[in-house]
Amino acid sequence: MDREAYLDGLLAEDEVLRGVRERIEARGMRPISVAPGYGRLLTVLVRGCRAREVLEIGALGGYSGICLARGLPEQGGRLTSLELEADYARFAEENLRAAGLGDRVEYRVGPALDGMEALEREGRRFDFFFVDADKENYPAYLDLALRLARPGALIAADNALLQDRVLDPDDTSDAAGAMRRFDLAFSRHPRLTSVILPAYDGLGLAVVDG
Ligand code: SAH
Ligand code: DHB
Ligand code: MG
Q: Which of 155, 175, 162 is CA-nearest to residue 68?
């Protein structure tokens, strides 16, 4: 058993999340939801910073969405989740409904950049962001998150290490280049206090100062 399996084994068995993971596999979707401990961390962070408005970028089957929504207060909390694929968004919404969280989530279908610009025009602002969509747009997602952030908002970002491709100087792909730019901007941004942990696939955490 590895250390992640040991620690995930300590978490009480979660039928709801296990079901989502199984249905994702059964539908032939890529198994790229966050891991159990990572999902729990999202719940801890959302609840710990008392977030009421949470924005997720990249829904897939709603696994991380359930974890984020579980951190919200029962009254007056909302998860907004942006997903490119209409059928993924529908499936994720079904999964949140089955988890008893349907009344706390709003899915928006389409490119997340457009979705974030629309949210900005609508005057929506957020206390917590989870960035987990297409890697080429991570630098733009960071810029937009900063425009949509309330002071003190938290930003969590998955895949900062891109399966270690950011470490490989021979990897000149768009995704690796964008993630290196994201990592640098995230780490040194004047409005952020941030860290990228070498956990999972590189886990970025930042608080938006003022
Ligand atoms: N956060 C999910 C996993 C997300 S996988 C979880 O842990 O449960 C990445 C998702 O981003 C996929 O569902 C993919 O369809 C979506 N995606 C890719 N490009 C996108 C874009 N431009 N806008 C919005 N979503 C996008
Ligand atoms: C991929 C995307 C992810 O968000 C992830 O967590 C793992 C893999 C991918 O596109 O390969
Ligand atoms: Mg990811």
A: 155
Cα separation, 80 vs 104, in Å, equals: 9
Among residues 129, 192, 204, 116, the alpha carbon closest in space to that of 159 is found at 204
What stretches in the chain show pLDDT beneath 50?
none
Q: Could you read off the pLDDT of 52-94 as tens digits, one per residue?
A: 999 999 999 999 999 999 999 999 999 999 999 999 999 999 9
Q: Ligand 2 center to residue 163 CA distance, Å?
A: 9
* Residues 182 and 160 sit within 8 Å (Cβ to Cβ): yes
Distance 159 CA to ligand 2 centre (A): 7
Pair of tokens at residue 149:
């952030």
Helix/strand/coil percentages in the chain, nearest 5: 50, 20, 30
Is the four-CA dihedral 18, 19, 22, 23 of positive or negative sign? negative
pLDDT at 13: 83
What residues sit around ligand 3, an ion, with C-beta below 5 angstroms?
A: 132, 158-159
CB 130 within 8 A of CB 110: no
- Please give the CATH architecture assigned to the domain spanning 3-208: 3-Layer(aba) Sandwich (3.40)
